[in-house]
Amino acid sequence: MNKSCENTSNDNNSKKELNAYSLAGIGIGGIVGSGFFLGSGLAIREAGPAVILAFLVGGFIMSQVLGAMTSISINRPVTGSFRVYTEQFLGKFMGYLLGWIIYISSILGIASEAMAAAIFLKYWFTRIPIALLALGVIILVILINRLNMRYFSYIESGTAVLKILTIVIFVGIGVIFLLSHGIQVTPNPFRSVNNFFPNKLSGILQAMLVVIFTYSGISTIAMATSDVKKPCLSIPKATIIVTAGLIILYTLSMCIIILTMNWSNVNIASSPIIQSLKSMNINWASSTINAIILIATFSVMIGNYYSCNQAIISLSESKEAPSIFKNTKKNFYWYAWLLTGISSLIVVLLSFSVSAKLFNYLVSACSYYSFFNWIVNLIVYLLWLKKRSSDEKYTSPLILGRWGAYGTIIIVILFFVMSLKVQDFRIGFYSAAIITVLISISYKLVKR
Predict the structure, then answer these.
(1) Rounded (10°) angle between helices 334-351 and 285-317
(2) Residues 6+ apart with CB under 8 A from 59
(3) Can you give the three-state secondary structure of the chain, one letter per residue?
(4) Considering all CA atoms of the chain, what is the largest pairwise distance in Å, rounded to the nearest integer?
(5) CA–CA distances in Å: residue 168 to residues 156, 316, 323
(6) Among 259, 274, 287, 400, which residue has the fewest nearby CB atoms (within 10 Å)?
(7) Mean pLDDT score of the chain, rounded to an integer?
(8) Confidence of residue 197 (pLDDT cuts 50, 70, 90)
């Protein structure tokens, strides 16, 4: 056991609110959202039945990145976690760049989820404009994040349980249906290699950008590690729960979808889970799943809002953002909370005044930021392995050491290159590149 674990004082622990299960709840709450419930349809259309393999590969990549993040955070618990570590190992500029990228991409993510939630609410509130619904959603999320950390973790854990139960119930219904009716899809996707890989290897590679996006919320776990009691016990347990749970639930869900409806008939404008249930004649599914997806988007927004606050606090403590954001009143970061809320409201308002297509490109840039963040975290992990002190002995059981990190970097770069073949993805990449340049220019101004 390393000294950073042994020397954690009781006083410090008494001020921390999270245990293994609440951290796992925050993690799952920040990961499972509309990206999976809605976006997985696009992955199915790209890869066909091989989407099952794509989610397994995506889960492996996530486990390596999460293992790298938590290996360092257990040994060096700090607010802001991997942004701080990036600064320590790659220099002030990279820490600054990563911190602001995390913040801006999370703000865009909150706004996009708010608009998605507004569309789901429109299902019941048909007469209320989507803009007003989206603003109402954002305001509710802002108020929820004003709660004490203890209640925040309860909310995230509760919504995580609900989302898990939803997927488990869906898988259970699918298994019962298949046992009683057999595989209804023709041709059987598991009968031949061609049936399983209708779009060959390129189909899987094209789908991976979407698949990685469904796992991208793992940064929420890393951001919350500084608020964990007994980190050496709680963090490894939480990461194993999150990793194993997500991989199993995601892949089983894809299996049920593939075996109950023809993959080529999946409509990317609707949840593939709803479509699968309808193909099984479960007609009540539409309203129920719509409500669950709505809860999922709220959960992701709450987690992203928390991550935003942690990022801006860390930047402020490093003098890379105004110092006011690190100030507290009654142990609450009022100014960080307020900045994130105002920024989210502004982006939502702007999204209704500019081209919807343009805004979608900006939001798609978040996927490339996930690639960037993950590669940076793996590089930092490799540098930490070389430079860590003798008392920093803990390494997460998730990551396969140095070779696991190198292999994951290569795989992520491959997915990045393949994604650029899709025109809309390229525009998202260009948007991400422009934002990155602007952040880099702002660093020069901050230095002055």
Answers:
(1) 130
(2) 215, 243, 246, 247, 250, 251
(3) CCHHHHCCCHHHHHCCCECHHHHHHHHHHHHCCHHHHCCHHHHHHHHHHHHHHHHHHHHHHHHHHHHHHHHHHHHCCCCCCHHHHHHHHHCHHHHHHHHHHHHHHHHHHHHHHHHHHHHHHHCCCCCCCHHHHHHHHHHHHHHHCCCCHHHHHHHHHHHHHHHHHHHHHHHHHHHHHHHHHCCCCCCCCCCCHHHHCCCHHHHHHHHHHHHHHHHHHHHHHHHHHHHECCHHHHHHHHHHHHHHHHHHHHHHHHHHHHHHCCHHHCCCCCCHHHHHHHHCCCCCHHHHHHHHHHHHHHHHHHHHHHHHHHHHHHHHHCCCCCHHHHCCECCECHHHHHHHHHHHHHHHHHHCCCCHHHHHHHHHHHHHHHHHHHHHHHHHHHHHHHHCCCCCCCCCCCCCHHHHHHHHHHHHHHHHHHHCCCHHHHHHHHHHHHHHHHHHHHHHHHHC
(4) 70
(5) 18, 42, 46
(6) 287
(7) 80
(8) very high
pLDDT band for position 19 (cuts 50, 70, 90): low
Does the pLDDT value for residue 142 go beyond 60?
yes
Average pLDDT estimate for 178-188: 85
Write the burial class of residue 167 (CB in 10 Å: 0-12 exposed, 13-18 middle, 19+ buried): buried
φ and ψ at 228, to 5 degrees?
-100, 135
Question: Which residues, 6 or more positions from 1, have their beta carbon under 8 angstroms from its beta carbon?
Answer: 232, 393, 394
Q: How large is the average pLDDT for residues 284-288?
A: 72
Amino acid at 346: I
Q: Are 220 and 307 in contact (CB under 8 A)?
A: yes
Query: 8 falls in which pLDDT band (50, 70, 90)?
Result: very low
Q: What token pair was written down for 53?
A: 């393999």
Q: Cα-atom radius of gyration of the chain, to the nearest Å?
A: 21
Mean pLDDT of 274-295: 80
Average pLDDT over residues 213-219: 77
Assess whether pLDDT exceeds 70 at residue 12. Answer: no
Contact 134, 348 (CB under 8 A): yes
CA distance 12 to 229: 9
* Residues 297-316 pLDDT 10s: 777 787 778 778 877 887 78
Residue 188 buriedness (CB in 10 A; 0-12 / 13-18 / 19+) = middle
Name the band, by pLDDT with cuts 50, 70 and 90, for residue 10. Answer: very low
Q: How many Cα neighbours within 13 Å face the side chain of 50?
A: 19
Of 352, 425, 360, 310, nearest to 133 by C-alpha is 352
